[in-house]
Amino acid sequence: MIAHRGCVALESDPADMSTQIDRDRCKGCGLCVVFCPRHILKLEDGLNRAGYHPAVNHDLDACTACGLCAEMCPETGIRVTRRKKKPRG
Length: 89
Description:
The protein is an alpha+beta fold. Helix content is 11%, strand content 18%. It has one domain (14-82): Alpha-Beta Plaits (2-Layer Sandwich). The strands form two sheets. Strands 1-4 form a two-stranded antiparallel ribbon. The chain is elongated.
């Protein structure tokens, strides 16, 4: 995991980053939705296994992988990771 605490986008190219939301860990508190600077997170209409409306990124291309969502998530259900680059050959 690249970032759980702190913003990583300043150090990395967003094209090399990926944000994943663990929908079964999400309790639907909405903190990530409120603090997303691009306003691309929302709570799903459907429920996860625990009966909560989990967060979802509805515009993956607009995500800068800044890590604020992961920073705000009290359930540590959001990860920002570096994508593996394909070897040049």
